[in-house]
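Worked problem 6 (solution included).
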Amino acid sequence: MSNENALEQKRQELTASPLFNLAFMPSLLLLPDSLHIYRATDAATRILGYSHNELQQMALYDLLVESREQVDTALERAYTQPPFVLTVRRPDREERILEGVLHRLESYHLLHCSFIDITDTHLARRAIREKAAISPRHLGYSYLRELVCAMSRAFGGAHVYIGRLVEAERVSGVAYAVDGTLRDAPDYPLQGTPCENAAARGYCAYLANVQLLFPNDQELRAIGAESYIGAPLRDSLGRTIGIAWIVHTKPLRASSAVQEVFQLFTTRAAHELLREQTEREREQLHLQLLQIQKMESMGRMAGGLAHDFNNLLTAVLGYIELAQGALPLDSAARGFLDNATTAVEKAASITRQLVTLARQQPMQRRVVNLNAIVQEAVRIAQTWMPASVQMQTYLSESLWYTEADPSQLMQVLQNLLLNARDAIPPETGGVITIETRNTVLDTEYARTHYQVVPGEYVMLMVSDTGVGMKPFVRERIFEPFFTTKPRGQGTGLGLSIVHGIVSQLGGHIWVYSEEGKGTTFKIYLPRAYDRVRSISEECTPPAELPRGHETLLVVEDELGVLEVAAESLRLQGYTVLTAHSPAKALQLAQEYDKPIHLLITDVVLPVMSGRELADYLMRLHPQIRVLYVSGYTENTIIHHGVLEEGVQLLPKPYTPAQLIQKVREVLDSD
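Solution. The predicted structure is:
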């Protein structure tokens, strides 16, 4: 018998012995020179996925992912520094990581290769090692970008993605890595993707043929995906805030290790996504607070200017009316005085806007149906709206009531419609849409909007198809006197007035604008729950001013206003006592031994307020009635509390006729 035949017989005896076939560890017998597989144990065929006959047609190199040079180096080192670690690709393209030892069987002229499958433990070790290598200075989105790279390496070059849920069925990309390298993170809709199931059901694993299961997912096709693992990212309340997935171009093995590693990945990803979201919300709230403080500062300044200006206008109006009363009916000077009155009234309208901007304008609040005001505003707007602009209204039939001043709501609508008209190019035309509906602003919305109180609101939307706004314009639209219109075509107060009125009503404004597409304003006004009160029209004053005989005490620190008020009332038959300070008023009241029927006092006086003066005078003259006047009603409302039920107020600037009407109204009231 030749040596070769003897060697072969000896090898066959080895492979037939129980020592080889019943070995605990999977084993291969290899020919030393070519690493051709001579025999494999049953346990080895189960791990490698090939039959005995198939394996006997292959060399070890054919099974491994690594190159021939890498395999030779690993095996050579394994003789002196065991074990070796190599990656096998099964027939189904799934990869397994093997750890083994190599022994020379000199008498058989074979190599004995024993190994175990360490895929799961190796993945866990590699994932922990990659994750631990991320620097602690990375937080939020920065950490997520490092994390997807680490997980991509841990999963052998997989596609790893983290996205933020921005709508119910849309994800915005945050971090994306392939082969351990960052790529641009795409946005995509959830519908028709594995992520739709992950968002709805939780952890989902499609370990093979994922493209066949989701044929409409273009992202899977572009990747050449074979397997998918995905899960929602949730906040502390269990709400879905994002999606994370790992996609591979080869099948993945179903194992507890894969699921556990992925769970650790998604837990940390959710934490950092929430951290980033919280930081962004904090910054957003900080910017909102700064804007509110700036608006309030400007409002206080505007209110102060309006206060002083109203005093001057009141005096000017009074002198004009007195001058008209002293002139013959056919005097040419009457026309000049009429023009002066018109100019003063225009100036007074500016101060009213400043007072509204400062949220100092006392409101005649009542329960109103916003639809009625919208219809009236649209009717008026049609008189000045160009033919190239179409107005559409969508009004809720079951709209809740809100509590507001109808005239100021009309002002809000007119300002918004004017801005919408001016935003639409006349050469192209466009559409303005006005809509009302009931809505609820929940705690989630209030969490990111500084001034919003959760609850039920009436929503008013004014949307246009105009030119839209640039971001820097959007940030400044509510600032007083800021305008993008040419000089002389706008005061820059319109949207400031809107902001002031809505804020004073406890409402909220949301603005969205996109260049070239248009702008949308949504105004949310709190729902009114008390009984509905009808909107009564103001009574038209009679043509002839009422007269009286009562005694009046007028207290005013502006001497011009004091003189005009006193003279106007005296001409109507009243006995008028005047004082330019609270001290003088108290002295007059103590010395005057007849009844004083009415105190007319400014709210803001030196030394003491008009309210405090009234309290003192009521002790001296219990029957006295009080009429407050003010051009600075923030102090009136907040600090002096005069707008309680039953308190009478005449805002500055006022004309003598308005003063005379109001005095008679107070004297005749119950």
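Discussion: The chain has 23 helices and 24 strands.
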